[in-house]
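Page 42, continued from yesterday. The earlier attempt failed because a stray header line got pasted into the input along with the sequence. Redoing it now with the clean sequence only.
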Amino acid sequence: MAEEGWAKEKSAPSGKTEEVPKVEKIEDDEAAFDALEAEQKEFIKDAEIDRILRAFRLDAYAVLDLQPGVPDSDIKKVYRTKSLLIHPDKTRNPQAPDAFDRLKKAQTELTDEKHRERLDEAIADARMLLMRERELTVDSEEVKSDEFAKAWREKAKMVLIDNEHRRRRQVKAQMQEEGREQKKEEEELEARKRKREHEQDWEKTREQRIGSWRDFQQGKKAPSDGKKKKKMKELGGRLGAILSWRIGYAFRGYVRTSWKTSNLHISITHTLSFRITSNTPQLYPYEPPLLPPSPVMAPARAQKVPVIPLAADTVLLPGNGLRIPFAASRPDIPALLSQVYSRASGKPASQRYNNAHVICVPLNSPLLSSNGQNLLTEDELKDKDGKANKYTIPDPASAKKDDLFTWGTAAKISGVEGRGTGEFSLIVEGVSRVRVLRVTQERPYFEADVQYETDVAPSPKDTEVQALFGTLKTLSRELLTLLRLTYLLPRRSGASGLTPMLARRIEMFIAKKDISEAGSLADFVSNLVEATLEEKLQILAAIDVRTRLERAVELLNKQVAAIKGNIKITSMTSSTVPMNGEIDLLNRQKSRALNRGTAAGFMPGMPGSAQGPPQDDQEPNEVDELEQKIEAAHLTPEAAKVAGRELKRLKKMPQQQAEYNVIRTYLENLAEIPWSVVTEDKLGADTLMRARKQLDDDHYGLDKVKKRLLEYLAVLKLKQSINDGVEAQIKTAEAEATELAKSTEKPDDAADAEPKKDVPAVDSAKIQILKSKRMVDKSPILLLVGPPGVGKTSLAKSIATALGRKFHRISLGGVRDEAEIRGHRRTYVASMPGLIVSGLKKVGVANPVILLDEIDKVGTSNFHGDPSAAMLEVLDPEQNHSFTDHYVNIPIDLSKVLFIATANDLSTIPPPLLDRMETIQLPGYTTLEKRHIASQHLIPKQIRTNGLDLTNVIFPDEVTSKIIESYTREAGVRNLERELGAVCRAKAVSYSDALDSSTLTSYNPVLTLAEIEEILGTEKFDEELAETRVRPGIVTGLVAYASGGNGSILFIEVADMPGSGSVQLTGTLGAVLKESVEVALSWVKAHAADLGLAQPGENIMKSRSIHVHCPGGAVPKDGPSAGMAHAVALVSLFSDRAVPPSIAMTGELSLRGRVHPVGGIKEKLIGALRAGVKKVILPEGNRKDARDLPDEVKQGLEIVHVRHIWETIRIIWPE
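This time it went through. Structure tokens are written below.
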């Protein structure tokens, strides 16, 4: 629009209207500029797309153009910026989609903690490898060079490429392994199919076999088929007299026998251990050789791994943990660990120590073969007299390779625990089964070639395994139910059980298992029960999942039967006892349990078994104690109703139930809330005088706050006196009503007896009217606003002390969640009341003084809610009598609470919240107030804090003023207290030196200005002093510092020079201050003829330029308070008349010449008095502010008020 007006003005003299071509030309230029700018943006986008596509794609940092180790916030910020820049919808580059996808992938990788950790490790490894190659250290200068950084990037690329190749090889191997697994599963299905066909054939030929056997016993011969019969072979020894031998066999697998005439054929499927004995008692054990792995196995290549022999009767199964104790008697374990970790140190960081594996092999048993088959029974070990022959298992420290079992468990080392007695324990976790092929080393530790075996998941179509798996889970649940009962029963049976919570967790763990994890579940359950060494070894050697399930079911059946016999329960199963019945039974059994012993558990390998100290059942009933607390709390009717309902639920609920603790915690919170407990206010005859003295002693000045508090105390005192009178009238009316009711009663046996009358309705109505006359106390909600350090928080404490109430402070700075104010709902885990209710619980009364500190720092609305909106109900006197916390969910009366909020800036407080509070401004302290506070409070405090006496350090007034004016410039007194403390510490050093050297006579306790400069250093702030020489164009203005509490004078300098009417502004002036200069110049130009500065119609700025400057260019200056001073300075310059330096002024100027009021009058006038100014010109609107000035300022300055700039000019130049 400005260009259009300019075009019209230029074309007016010619009389032709050529505005349109001008506009079109300008529009064409703008279009060309826009096109050029768009082309530049596209170039930037293309360059960024090209950079992303050229970046090393395996390094997400390079794709995002970031350095390793940047915080997550920078990653999100950079990704957002670059994704918006190269988004395919915002650019025409055909490669933008590829670059965008690569950028998104890089951001996803860096936000993934695991992937980013691997990337950081690879980059760190590259740096370490490069340093090793160049033989550098971390402190070497070359490490910090650009050439090293470039080489580091190239090395990181190589490491990342190697890692990617390794990952791809692993993926390929895994895919190949999955193919082999599928092939094995198909072979297993085919084997089972052949087995079923054979069983069918076996049943079909049953009669033929039985007949053949009978014929053989009777000596009959089968009919000859014309072929020559083969001679029978020997089996396990000579079978010359076949009928005198007894054939016995023990097997775990499938056995097939067939009889043809007189020959005996035995076919063995899987592993079969059998023995052939004669009629004599001599035993001939037979151990079959190692068979090749069956189709159900998944063998891997042989590896040489360290081996740890386990102690006697100890077996580690996969999926379970074990603590292996070792001391000086087991030197093999320290040697093994040293070797394991020395090997791991050369691996990458991610594979260094967390994946260190060893093989835990149990010791062999003479009752089993190396493959876990039964060789002898315990009965067969007895001698002729029936006594058992004891056999010993060697110590693992002295074991030989023949003592090791054929099967073991590959275990991951989790850590080493140490005790103060010099004993250590190695913590391992079983991972998978292994077959020990060959022991290659015995000392200093065992080492063997092993073959890893993995479980093959059973087929879902295998009904036999499905049935075994279901039986295992059913027996497991039954066992856990019995263990819960055992825990609650008296321990006279010598057995301990599981806590209900632990049993429930184990039951949930078992319930989540499916058929694919049948083998691991069998291992886990087998570790729960008590079993012999042989039974554990057989479980370990059971590679076939079906065999393992059978043995686990057998162990569970034995354990369940043993527990039932111990606790005399014979008819309880997990399928027949419903949940409610089980809980009732547990409660009844627990109520009968009086004394629990300390018997050891019967399941040594069971995790969480009760091995700890006995529990004391004679403890007080916590429910009864809780009920007493609730009764003593005097709850409101609504709260008492809720508490009663929850108490009934709690009494019927077992302690092990999860909701028990939730209800108990809720009731404890209800009992701790002060529903009716209040602090009696000290409202005597001397209440106001005592409160006024308390506030004056604690704080100097702050008259507005003190006045408001005294008003509240006066109102509270009058209300209490009225309430006391009303209470006396209510008691008198109730007594009269009681007497009247007694006089109207008649004997019960009178013939004409009438019903007893209650208190007459008229008396009841009278009492209700009197009760309605009670004065309700609604505490005010005060908001103290002021700069930091002016005493807002300490003032709130003084208010609580003056009232005699308890004080609680709540810091609201940084609160971002509404639940922190209103509490968390009980449905959430670990829920709790909000800050308000928690504060009431802490102080224990319903009418404390609560300080809401930094209320202007409360967070705004977000996905957690709006905390400032939650404060609306708290700070509304019309609503807070029924404040509802989300956790308590019962109305709580907050009307008796005196809320005092503090803030530094009102602009950040939402208007609805600000409207509910009574705002009281606390301005910064002036120099006079700081001097008084320092002499009365801060100096004595610092002297005592630093171990001195008031006679050891003396602060003269000029020293205190020097520290205030030259070393501190703040609204409060915090920095002043620090500087005073520094001076006191310096004097403490001088006093101590004089005391130690016995030269106290030379010690001077009185501080001097020279000492202050020596202790605190050079002055931090310089004070402006009024000029002594007069010059045209220079005016003394007034300024108040933004920090508050301080003010000073400000020189405004104006100079003219030949020019074209321009105006130059310097001195770091703000936008408002620049506008004030323009307004002042416009007024002077408009009234130049009236001022005698130019002829009518003459432009005063013709052929001249002016320069306006405010000294102190490093300090930013702004504000609408220098308009009058600028106008006077321009008039002084143009008229060549100087302004007396003893006159200072402040006020804003309008174009009409009116002088408007400004702020900071108190601070400005104190600064003017300190600078030597004698007369101050103020706007008429600031007359009210001058009344609150200290007497010292009123007496030291001549204050003149003006309404118009003409009045100011007449005061300065009366002529």
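Notes: DSSP finds 37 helices and 26 strands in the chain.
Reminder to self: strip header lines before submitting.
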